[in-house]
């Protein structure tokens, strides 16, 4: 049984003071649902969020991590640093990191393996560009990201993975994939996971859609058969909007 999972991705928004304000409001609105909720926040907000959400079902996530245990990697954060402050999830391979910070399928794979060796569950982002979609290459692109990102990860570890399908053309653009487009790709992702791991394992993997999800379209997305949740950028910045999406 897959528990639906909706995560916010704050990107580089909210200082610690902003995060505390949000968390207090969100905690007061949150009455507990059948949906797992999480906020993926900037590193500097995580400890404060962990403290405020302690004792609730609201989880916290980071937006990136380094794959090495420790070392001379100026500006980076390790998995054990995140574990120590109680981080539950970590986004890996977001298209903005692929575009601006040289994230590749190879580094995604290293990060996935390191996270799966820890208590933190990875949310691995995949998705095609507009050019790839227009050229009829969307499915090939996503399959290749899955095969490379999940290389050498076994079925036992794979059940802890969350896959977020985020078509690049729908992120932060206000242009959402239709329920049909999102559902079709998420079904393709499930079938690829069946090829890689077999049906029992693939059935347990949470697949989210991300790309301009907001209160008005959350139900259409969440009601598609192979979509188990959403990764929400802009609309997760306001506690009321994010709560409305969770209550879709
Ligand atoms: C995201 O950043 O993962 C995202 C889906 O952003 P938005 O909801 O703003 O399109």
UniProtKB/TrEMBL annotation:
SUPFAM superfamilies cross-referenced by the UniProt entry: Triosephosphate isomerase (TIM)
Reaction(s) catalysed by this chain's protein: D-glyceraldehyde 3-phosphate = dihydroxyacetone phosphate
Pathway membership, UniProt: Carbohydrate biosynthesis; gluconeogenesis; Carbohydrate degradation; glycolysis; D-glyceraldehyde 3-phosphate from glycerone phosphate: step 1/1
Binding locations of substrate: 9-11, 172, 212, 233-234
Keywords on record: Cytoplasm, Gluconeogenesis, Glycolysis, Isomerase
Cellular component annotations (GO), alphabetically ordered: cytosol
Superkingdom, natural source: Bacteria
UniProt enzyme class: isomerase
PROSITE patterns: TIM_1, TIM_2
Catalytic machinery residues: 94, 166
Molecular function terms from GO: triose-phosphate isomerase activity
EC number of the protein: 5.3.1.1
GO BP annotations, alphabetical order: gluconeogenesis; glyceraldehyde-3-phosphate biosynthetic process; glycerol catabolic process; glycolytic process
UniProt name for this protein: Triosephosphate isomerase
Taxon lineage: Bacteria, Bacillati, Bacillota, Clostridia, Peptostreptococcales
Gene name for this UniProt entry: tpiA
């Amino acid at each position: 049984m897959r528990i639906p999972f909706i995560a916010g991705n704050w990107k580089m928004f909210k200082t610690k003071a902003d995060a505390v304000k949000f968390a207090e409001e969100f905690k007061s609105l949150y009455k507990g649902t059948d949906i797992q909720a999480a906020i993926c926040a900037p590193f500097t907000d995580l400890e404060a969020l962990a403290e405020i959400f302690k004792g609730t079902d609201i989880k916290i996530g980071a937006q990136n991590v380094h794959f090495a245990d420790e070392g001379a990697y100026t500006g980076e954060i390790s998995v054990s640093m995140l574990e120590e402050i109680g981080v539950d999830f970590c986004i890996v391979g977001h298209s903005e990191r692929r575009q601006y910070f040289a994230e590749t399928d190879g580094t995604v794979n290293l990060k996935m393996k390191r996270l799966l060796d820890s208590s933190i569950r990875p949310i691995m982002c995949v998705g095609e560009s507009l050019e790839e979609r227009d050229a009829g290459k969307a499915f090939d692109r996503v399959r290749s990201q899955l095969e490379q990102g999940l290389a050498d990860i076994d079925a036992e570890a794979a059940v802890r993975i969350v896959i977020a399908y985020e078509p690049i053309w729908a992120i932060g653009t206000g242009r959402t994939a239709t329920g049909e487009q999102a559902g079709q790709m998420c079904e393709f992702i499930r079938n690829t996971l069946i090829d890689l791991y077999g049906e029992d394992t693939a059935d347990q993997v949470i697949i989210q859609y991300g790309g301009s999800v907001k209160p008005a379209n959350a139900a259409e997305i969440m009601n598609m058969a192979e979509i188990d949740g959403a990764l929400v950028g802009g609309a997760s910045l306001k506690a009321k909007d994010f709560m409305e999406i969770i209550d879709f």
